[in-house]
Amino acid sequence: MPIRRLDPTTINRIAAGEVIERPAAAVKELVENALDAGARRIGVTIEGGGIGRIEVTDDGHGIPEAELPLAIERHATSKLTDEALVRIATLGFRGEALPSIGAAGRLTVTSRPAGQDSAARIVVDGGAVREVEPVAGPVGTCVTVEDLFHATPARRKFLRSAGAEAGSCADAVRHLALAAPAVGFSLTIDGAASFDLPPQDRRERVAAIYGRADAEKLLEIEAVREEVALRGFISPASLTRAAARHQHMVVNGRPVRDPLLRMALRLAYRERIPAGRHPLAALWLEIPAEMLDVNVHPAKAELRFAAPDAVRSLMIGAVQRALATPADLAAAPSVS
Ligand code: ADP
Ligand code: MG
């Protein structure tokens, strides 16, 4: 067969395989877009494990009608200028999420910027784009994804049960809600409200996500070295879980599952907790953008640090200092 260029639909389906591994990845991309749009309130609805339907509604700045066709085009983004790849301030920048989702399922984007009289809608199904049409709608954006992976059946086969996929979607939304506590978040799964959180500070958001009983036991940590700051809440060695589900790391506002940060946390607790147990931790790391490469992973979950040892030792030091102050001593009423 001669060498030939792939058509855009095929290219988008290939990208979809990397960017949208499972429904939770689509949820994450859509909520990140809402956060990038400056939303104050974000509503997420999941049906049938996110394979049936995902809906993300926001009150952000919207997409002008004339730009809707570009929003779903590959490598089209309003967030990155060609020179800016060294200092990425937005959660998105690759312009890949919407075209990837639209290649794998049926994507509908309905949006209305504040200055526009009515909303407009664009639909992409399995890579085929329908005309933009005017519709009624509030200011902001609503993105729905239906029948995810119907156009990529190989991927569909690797999904777990609807219940397990819905659980992963909920985990993704919780992580994002921790990353942006000042934004109101609601999550509805198969018609049942999971949570509906007003704008909160970090401590209140952690309590809402982890449950008040656990949150009250958490130790606050803070460590600042030069321009790098780590703040958040960790559990005392007496409070652990069998799974690492309650470990949420946020780097420059970005929810991440970074191996270096996880390993540093594990090292900090080493010998204090039994093997197979995991501490709870909600940690926010602020680091100058030029010390960080976020462009190493298609789903942007992993990072590369310019000074990994400094980050690792900041984390280990901060956690070990907090663990060395017995929580029950600190919390006990002083008897004189
Ligand atoms: P990226 O986020 O990397 O730019 P996406 O494919 O996720 O790429 O989105 C493409 C573009 O569509 C964004 O750059 C943005 O301009 C627009 N967009 C997507 N979702 C929203 C939203 N919820 N509110 C406003 N604009 C959006
Ligand atoms: Mg995006």
Question: Could you write a compact summary of the structure shown?
Answer:
Helix content is 32%, strand content 26%. It has eleven helices and 18 strands.
Task: Provide a descriptive summary of the structure in words.
The protein is of the alpha+beta class and about 325 residues long. The protein has 2 domains: about 10-195, Histidine kinase-like ATPase, C-terminal domain (Heat Shock Protein 90, 2-Layer Sandwich), CATH 3.30.565.10; about 210-325, Ribosomal Protein S5, domain 2 (2-Layer Sandwich), CATH 3.30.230.10. It has 11 helices and 18 strands. It has helices at about 10-20, 25-35, 70, 95-105, 155, 160-180, 200-210, 210-215, 260-270, 310-325, 325-330, and strands spanning about 40-45, 55-60, 105-110, 120-125, 130, 135, 140-145, 185-190, 190-195, 220-225, 230-235, 240, 245-250, 255, 280, 280-285, 290-295, 305. Strands 1, 2, 3, 4, 5, 6, 7, 8 and 9 form a 9-stranded mixed beta sheet that branches. It has a 5-stranded mixed beta sheet with strand order 10-11-16-13-14, with helices on both faces. The protein has a two-stranded antiparallel ribbon with strand order 12-15. Strand 4 and strand 5 (about 130) form a beta hairpin. The chain is globular and about 65 Å long. The mean pLDDT is about 90. The structure holds adenosine-5'-diphosphate (ADP) and magnesium ion (MG). This is DNA mismatch repair protein MutL. It comes from Acidiphilium multivorum (strain DSM 11245 / JCM 8867 / NBRC 100883 / AIU 301). GO terms for molecular function: ATP binding; ATP hydrolysis activity; ATP-dependent DNA damage sensor activity; mismatched DNA binding.
